[in-house]
Specification:
By secondary structure, the chain is mostly helical. It is built from 19 helices and no strands.
């Protein structure tokens, strides 16, 4: 008989609510902001192919494992790992896995909020007609003026953190679930509308080639690492969010089915975002690998030229904010839940504390784009040239999230008993269960470890590569 535990924070009202919430966590800036510019910087189709492979071989097994742990523990990641380690008679050190997830989510939220603040600022810019009839150069100037002004960035960063805390305070059902039921379908519809515009007014055929015709000369272990990091980032893996959301999942919901649905939704939105953005990039002769500002330099061109662009542009950036909003809530929820459990304080107080800490750390990202831009505190090290923002992005996406994924798989597939795994997964087909166990036990951890060793230069020293 399965161990019965209850969550003091509440539950999703249904399996569909979990799928929407987890998709809301996954489908945010990671897909619409980060995926297109990552693909642009790393060879287009070659990166997309690697990304899809990483989702299937790494992302999905880790997601299932993380949801499994979350529902089994029914509490914050830190307390879930403490409880499960005791239940499986393992070392209490495993609680550090939960702590690392909470920390990773916190660090990501700190800079995620600043980027979401750009979207907030663009709601105002589009609504006031700033982009009507602009050229690519003019759109770039608007963006440069925004990120070079620390006061503006600080204001919008503060607004977004406040919006995030407002929803977190309201809890699982009244806050997040209510929002995602409306906002996620609306975001999907608007992206489809943007793709329709791109087909009519952009270089759509060339963008299809760019996204889906792999140039294998672009492949390298570094690109593989980036694709894997993006898979973890966009699925919200290894940062405590999915484990936390899994703790709210009803007992009768299939972990395998819901995880698959979330992964499909996440991947679909990422691809659709690329199809909406790159036709405009290529048609206007812009550089596909522009970096973090890609979506803020290219989409305004579409809104400035298309009929009804003022309305659609404003709505798009509003919904982009909401997509980022649902992701931000998932990033802060593990920390909020842990403080409530640890110190028996109210959800209101816990949310305020977490919000203030995330806001403070976010100041480093705010100044990375202006006042601190020319300061290289890592001069002479392997991190030379990286800003505070670059460092956080690199450490979380390329190190903490994959490392968390490895440890999640090791605990779920190796250290938990067979009975515990089967009790939670409830996979009907034996072949499907054995496939998950094989991927989670062997392929995912070994693949991630090999990539880490290459990045650290170990394989080269051993003449393996």
């Amino acid at each position: 008989m399965a161990t019965v535990r209850t969550s003091i924070h509440g539950y999703w009202s249904s399996r569909f609510a979990f799928v929407l919430a987890a998709a809301g966590s996954a489908v945010g800036l990671g897909n619409i902001w980060k995926f297109p510019y990552m693909a642009g910087e790393n060879g287009g189709g070659a990166f997309v192919l690697l990304y899809l492979i990483c989702i299937a071989l790494f992302g999905l097994p880790v997601m299932m494992s993380e949801v499994l742990l979350g529902r089994r523990g029914r509490s914050s990641p830190v307390n879930t790992m403490t409880t499960l380690a005791a239940e499986e008679k393992r070392s209490r050190v495993w609680r550090l896995l939960g702590l690392m997830g909470v920390l990773a989510g916190f660090l990501i939220l700190s800079y995620y909020s600043v980027i979401a603040g750009w979207a907030l600022a663009y709601v105002l810019e589009t609504a006031t007609g700033t982009f009507s009839g602009v050229s690519g150069e003019q759109a770039g100037e608007v963006f440069d003026n925004l990120i070079s002004n620390p006061r503006r960035l600080l204001f919008w960063h503060s607004v977004f953190i406040l919006l995030t805390m407002v929803v977190v305070i309201r809890g699982v059902n009244k806050g997040l679930e209510t929002a995602v039921r409306i906002l996620m379908p609306a975001l999907f519809i608007l992206i489809i509308i943007m793709i329709g515009y791109a087909m009519l007014h952009g270089d759509f055929l060339e963008s299809l080639k760019f996204l889906f015709a792999p140039d294998f000369s672009k492949l390298s272990p570094e690109v593989v690492l980036k694709a894997m990091g993006q898979a973890f980032f966009s699925l919200s893996l290894g940062m405590g969010a999915i484990m936390m959301y899994g703790s709210y999942l009803p007992d009768d919901a299939s972990i395998a089915t819901t995880s698959f649905q979330v992964a499909i939704a996440d991947t679909l939105i990422a691809i659709l975002a690329g199809l909406a953005i790159f036709p405009i990039v290529l048609a206007n002769g812009l550089e596909a690998g522009q970096g973090p500002g890609l979506i803020f330099n290219t989409l305004p061109l579409a809104f400035g030229q298309m009929t009804g662009g003022l309305i659609f542009g404003t709505l798009f950036f509003i919904l982009l904010v909401f997509a980022a909003w649902t992701s931000a809530i998932s990033l802060i929820e593990p920390a909020v839940a842990w403080l409530v459990e640890k110190f028996s304080i109210s959800r209101f107080i816990s949310s305020i504390i977490c919000g203030l800490v995330a806001w403070t750390v976010g100041l480093g990202t705010v100044y990375s784009f202006n006042s601190w831009k020319k300061i290289d505190v890592f001069d002479g090290t392997i991190l030379e040239g990286k800003s505070f923002f670059d460092l956080l992005d690199y450490l979380t996406s390329n190190i903490m999230l994959p490392l968390g994924g490895i440890l999640i798989c090791i605990f779920a597939a190796w250290l938990m008993s067979e009975k515990s795994r089967r009790d939670e997964l409830k996979i009907k087909y034996e072949v499907a269960y054995k496939l998950w166990r094989f991927l989670a036990r062997y392929l995912t951890p070994i693949g991630v470890v090999l990539i880490f060793l290459h990045v650290l230069g170990v394989l080269e020293k051993l003449n393996i590569t």
